[in-house]
Amino acid sequence: MRPEISAELTALDTTLTTIEKVLNPEEMETRVRELEAQASDPSLWDDPDHAQRVTSELSQVQGQLKKLLGMRSRLDDIPVMCELAEEEGEGDQLVEAELEQLREEISSLEVKTMLSGEYDAREAVVNIRSGSGGVDAADWAEMLFRMYVRWAEKRGHKVDIHDVSYAEEAGIKSATFTVHGDYMYGTLSVEQGPHRLVRISPFDNQGRRHTSFAEVEVLPVVEITDHIDIPDSEIRVDVYRSSGPGGQSVNTTDSAVRLTHIPTGIVATCQNEKSQIQNKASAMRVLQAKLLERKRQEEQAELDALGAGGNASWGNQMRSYVLHPYQMVKDHRNQFETNDPTKVLDGDLDKFLEAGIRWRMTQQQSQ
Question: Which InterPro entries match (predicted)?
Answer without folding.
Answer: PCRF (IPR005139), Pep_chain_release_fac_I (IPR000352), Pep_chain_release_fac_I_sf (IPR045853), PrfB (IPR004374)
